[in-house]
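FW: tagging you since you asked about this chain on Friday. Here's the raw sequence from the shared folder, copied in full. Didn't touch anything.
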Amino acid sequence: SMPGISRLSIDLLVQKAQKAADLGIPAAALFPATPPEKKTLRGEEALNPQNLICRATAEIKARVKNIGIITDVALDPYTTHSHDGLLQNGEILNDETIEILCAQSLNQAKAGADIIA
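HL: got it, structure written out here
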């Protein structure tokens, strides 16, 4: 449903990032495809420093010197309900969602993200 968009293993992603850097592309945006078994109601995988997005970010930053990495702060890839916020009885828990999104931001920054969207 998204022409030109591919899911890549980390090793292939590093190769694509190098090609992009060689072409003068200044940054790449990464979005994870979280396995269903790692999705929860609260999206805890977003806080795992070894999650896919953090491992991919760290690997690219270690191997490709001239490219920035943009990550997305959102819970939808990590929740079973695919919503960006925490839900309770069909309502968004705004304050709790903000706390988790802040922690997710720090997690991505520690992995080496240059821009956190």
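FW: The two ends are 22 Å apart (CA to CA).
HL: agreed, and The longest strand covers residues 27-30.
FW: great, closing this out.
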